Each structure stands twice: as structure tokens, then as C-alpha cells.
């Protein structure tokens, strides 16, 4: 018992978040971070399929599942969309029917699929980052390159790839607001 208390005190002292039993069950969500530094190296095909299945398992209004996932492995095209993409990174473009701005239900559903993809990549040991900034450019200039069907527009994309070892949510994540500043109980 003394030994585990000492480890707990050391972890708190150096800033490592200590998860309780309930929090440990949600560790992949509580410990995520948006990767900024990617390194070259491919994503295993089986892992990529698992990441995509996680996206397809997202909840959606009336189970419509309006999303379409376009996997960009072509590095030349990926670099046109996200300039600092490195070899082996994959971009997963999430799109839906509609203009991508006013089709609210489909956008929300795509957002849920986007988060599933983002979290699944990290749960499998990859870095991931969600992008929405490039969507206007994607919809204006790359829809044909991406093979998006007529009437579809990109809503978001997830970049997934290898990250340097030793990076974690403590050292890489932006500070979060205290929970009591974003929750109201009535």
C-alpha cells in the first residue's frame, strides 16, 4: 500500500493525470490530444479498416448514416489538402449530401463519425487530428479528385499517422477549461 501511495504522489508531482477506476474505463477519450507532429511511416491496413469501422459505428439521426469516407493515401493529393502531411499519413475526408453548411442533421452525424475516427486512431497508437478549416478549399477545388458524388460536400477530415514516441496527452495537449466552468447542474 505504501508503494502505490508513493507512486501516486510522484505521478501527481510530475503532472501525470491519475485516473480513478471509472475514468480508467474512458481512458482513450480522457487522454486524447490533437497531434501536431507526425513522422513518416504507414498505417497498418487492418488498423485503417478498424478506424473506418469505428467511424461507421457512430450514432446518427434516425440511423441514416449519411456519411461517406474518402481515404486519401495519395501523398501528392494529401499535401495539396493539408500542406505538412508526411509520407504514410492518411487523410479521411468525411462528407455528406448537402452543402456542408445548412444540412445540420447530416453535419452533426458526420461530426460524430469524425470523432469516432479520431479516437479510434489514437486508441490504436496513431496520432490523429481533426481539420475543418480546409473544407471550403476541398469543396471548391478537390471534390473531383476525391471522387465525391454529385451533391456531396466535405464536412471534416481526420489526419492519422505515426507520431514520435514519448508524446502523450500531458505533454502535447492544450490546456482544458476546468470542468466546473463548463457544466451547470440544476
Number of E-state strands: 4
| Text of the CATH class of the largest domain | Alpha Beta
CATH superfamily of the largest domain: NADH Oxidase
Q: Helix/strand/pairing class, anyone?
A: alpha+beta
What is the ordering of alpha helices and beta strands?
Answer: HHHHEHEHEHEH
Assembly level:
single chain
CATH architecture of the largest domain: 3-Layer(aba) Sandwich
Strand arrangement across the biggest beta sheet: 1-2-4-3
Radius of gyration: 19 Å
Annotation field: number of helices: 8
How confident overall, as mean pLDDT? 87
Query: What number of structural domains do the residues give?
Result: 2
What is the 3D shape?
A: globular
CATH third-level topology of the largest domain:
NADH Oxidase
Largest sheet: 4 strands, antiparallel
- The helix content, as a percent range, equals 40-55%
Q: Strand percentage, roughly? A: 15-25%
Pick out the low-confidence regions.
Answer: 1-14
Question: First CA to last CA: what distance?
Answer: 39 Å
Topology (elements, then pairings):
Elements: H1 2-14, H2 21-25, H3 27-30, H4 45-56, E1 68-72, H5 75-81, E2 90-97, H6 104-123, E3 127-131, H7 135-146, E4 152-161, H8 169-172
Antiparallel strand pairs: 1-2, 2-4, 3-4
Amino acid at each position: 500500500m505504501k508503494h502505490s501511495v508513493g507512486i501516486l504522489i510522484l505521478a501527481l508531482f510530475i503532472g501525470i493525470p491519475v485516473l480513478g477506476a471509472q475514468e480508467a474505463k474512458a481512458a482513450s477519450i480522457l487522454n486524447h490530444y490533437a497531434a501536431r507532429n507526425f513522422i513518416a511511416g504507414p498505417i497498418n491496413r487492418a488498423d485503417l479498416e478498424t478506424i473506418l469501422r469505428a467511424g461507421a459505428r457512430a450514432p446518427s439521426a434516425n440511423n441514416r448514416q449519411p456519411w461517406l469516407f474518402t481515404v486519401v493515401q495519395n501523398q501528392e493529393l494529401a499535401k495539396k489538402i493539408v500542406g505538412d502531411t508526411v509520407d504514410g499519413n492518411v487523410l479521411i475526408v468525411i462528407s455528406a449530401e448537402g452543402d456542408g453548411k445548412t444540412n445540420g442533421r447530416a453535419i452533426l452525424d458526420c461530426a460524430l463519425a469524425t470523432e469516432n475516427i479520431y479516437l479510434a486512431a489514437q486508441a490504436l497508437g496513431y496520432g490523429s487530428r481533426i481539420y475543418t478549416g480546409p473544407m471550403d478549399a476541398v469543396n471548391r477545388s478537390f471534390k473531383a479528385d476525391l471522387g465525391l458524388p454529385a451533391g456531396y460536400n466535405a464536412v471534416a477530415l481526420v489526419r492519422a499517422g505515426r507520431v514520435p514516441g514519448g508524446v502523450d496527452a500531458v505533454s502535447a495537449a492544450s490546456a482544458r477549461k476546468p470542468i466546473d466552468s463548463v457544466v451547470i447542474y440544476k
